[in-house]
Amino acid sequence: MNHNRIDQLMKFLQLSPNDSFIKYALALEYIKGGDDEKGKLYFEEILKNDPDYIGTYYHLGKLYERLREKFLAENTYQEGLRRSVGIDAKTYQELQEALNELLYEDE
User: Fold this and answer.
1) Under 8 Å between Cβ of 57 and 82
2) What's the whole-model pTM score?
3) Which of 48, 89, 103, 104 is at a distance of 20 to 30 A from 18, taking alpha carbons?
4) How sure is the predictor about 3, in pLDDT bands with cuts at 50, 70 and 90?
């Protein structure tokens, strides 16, 4: 885990406690360092307070999949699809592919 980067991001977060980008970066750093739970908390906080921060849906859905929370992953992808339709075609496509893989992986 890159503690220097996390420390720096935490300082930024103190200055801007509602900044979704900083929380997103923190979540990714924690996950990269093996702390899925902290990463999950930051992603969930983003979606609670800034549900239109659509890049979060893909990463949180993938995290739920790794944590074997298929129902939560599916719901996360579906909400991301709903929010990204007509706004961000690339994110919409990535979410649709992730959802399809999730739903049809056992077939």
Assistant:
1) no
2) 0.92
3) 89
4) confident
